[in-house]
Amino acid sequence: MTEEKTDNAADQPVVTNVALPVSLKPDGFAVILESVTRKIASSAKGTGLVGAPLQEAISEVVTTAAREAVETGGDLLFGTKAIIMGVVRGTGATKDAALQMVAHASRIIIHHTADRNGNLAAAIKGIVLGAIASARTMEVETGRAASTAAQGALEGASEAGSVTVERVLGALKEPIGGNKVVLPEPLAT
After folding, report:
1. What are the b/e assignments for 105-129, b being 16+ CB within 10 Å?
2. Contacts of 123 (CB under 8 A, 6+ apart)
3. What is the reported pTM?
């Protein structure tokens, strides 16, 4: 253990090179949320990306975050919820533009979760919960946010195959966050 002096007025010692006990490590949800938010915000606001280039930037950030969430073996419900919330916060988009970003991110998350044999039920629940938690920020109703996220997830599932679609639809039959997710009729079967 080493101590370093800081330049602040209190001149408090800072402990470095010490493994923190689990209870003191940063919250995984908060780490993912802040990372996704920061990376997307720097693309959206820092470089002025909009439209297709912004969606490409979102794709890169979400792909990396989804892969890491699956590969680290953490709880995908919280990981995918943080990714969706980070996309909404990072873009600063509202209404239909925000819903498009959520659908796009949902599609990518499910596709990469399926590719890595991740827990699809936990992933879809986290996606929907992230959309519901972000509904006010997006300036849309919670039901619409949940439905849009589920539709995007089903698009990603269809890219991954029929078994993935069945698993995602199965997870969507149960209420999520106290809400029954409404899908358009062709998708609800």
Report:
1. bbbbbbbbbbeeebbbbbbbbbbbb
2. 76, 77, 80, 109, 110, 113, 153
3. 0.82
Domain region containing 158: 27-175
Asked whether residue 188 is domain-assigned, the answer is no
Which phi and psi angles does 27 have, rounded to 5°? Answer: -65, 125
On the 0-12 / 13-18 / 19+ scale of CB atoms within 10 A, 98 is: buried
Q: Is position 11 within any domain? A: no
Which pair of tokens denotes residue 79?
């990981």
pLDDT tens digit at each of 189 positions of the chain: 444 444 433 333 333 333 433 333 457 899 999 999 999 998 877 666 777 888 899 999 999 999 999 998 888 999 999 999 999 999 999 999 999 999 999 999 999 999 999 999 999 999 999 999 999 999 999 999 999 999 999 999 999 999 999 999 999 999 998 888 988 665 554
Domain count, the chain: 1
Report the chain's C-alpha Rg in angstroms: 18
Place of tokens 């009729």: 185
